[in-house]
Task: inverse folding
């Protein structure tokens, strides 16, 4: 992990309420990977805590993140302009790592949880993986990254809660509907807690024992495991884990959702 001052290259709306920010790194940074995250300042001195945002895309010199406007902090971030500098700690947490033998990969993403799925597609493109993507949004106005998912997936289902684009459904339901066709070797997922809970329960109900890894979305303070804001329970509830330090990616049965 490094503490850097990064320079903003781009910070523009992606869809309503969601922004895409790209920034340059002042030096080479080891360990950038899909599923890991950055802790970045808001560009406003009135908000001291940095915001944890998943890495969407990266090159040796740049990182791209996408974030949703949720409060004053992220709204301050949306006012950052090209050429501005921000303090940033990166890369943080663990990420998604596919084994060589895991050829058929199911990606299940909901809302802003689609962006870590994009990072997986980008990182493993050209490595012979067969991706089946199941992506859900509230409505057609919230749909983004559709071209990326369709171009890099052998099977792709884009659904919306209200049916305004694609089938009226959610990402988890779309996955289970297509399961017999996809038959994945491994499942990767990120999205709201109710979505991940539905995935966990659905696997149990169907007695499916496919390896499944999820990225948890939790409020964070420090991002390095010191403040304990993002603690969640391990299976059985006897122990706790820190989402920022021990995660954010966990095996789905490892933690309580």
Result:
């Amino acid at each position: 992990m490094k503490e850097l001052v990064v320079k903003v290259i781009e910070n523009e709306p992606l869809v309503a309420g969601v922004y895409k920010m790209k920034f340059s790194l002042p030096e080479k940074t080891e360990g950038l990977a899909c599923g890991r995250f950055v802790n970045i300042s808001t560009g406003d001195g009135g908000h001291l805590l940095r915001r944890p945002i998943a890495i969407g895309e990266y090159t040796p010199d740049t990182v791209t993140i996408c974030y949703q406007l949720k409060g004053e902090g992220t709204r301050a971030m949306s006012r950052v302009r090209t050429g501005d500098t921000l303090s940033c700690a990166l890369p943080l947490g663990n990420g998604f790592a596919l084994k060589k033998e895991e050829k058929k990969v199911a990606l299940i993403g909901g809302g802003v949880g689609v962006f870590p799925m994009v990072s997986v597609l980008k990182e493993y493109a050209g490595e012979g993986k067969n991706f089946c993507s199941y992506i859900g949004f509230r409505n057609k106005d919230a749909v983004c990254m559709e071209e990326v998912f369709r171009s890099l997936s052998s099977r792709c289902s884009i659904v919306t809660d209200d049916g305004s684009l694609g089938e009226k459904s959610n990402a988890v339901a779309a996955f289970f509907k297509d399961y017999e066709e996809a038959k994945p070797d491994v499942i990767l997922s990120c999205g709201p807690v109710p979505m991940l809970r539905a995935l966990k329960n659905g696997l149990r109900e169907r007695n499916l024992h496919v390896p499944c890894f999820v990225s948890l979305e939790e409020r964070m303070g420090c991002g390095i495991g010191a403040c304990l804001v993002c603690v969640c329970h391990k299976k059985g509830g006897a122990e706790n884990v820190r989402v920022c330090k021990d995660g954010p990616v966990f095996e789905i049965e490892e933690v309580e959702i």
The CA atoms of residues 149 and 247 lie 25 Å apart. The chain has a mean pLDDT of 93. The radius of gyration is 18 Å.
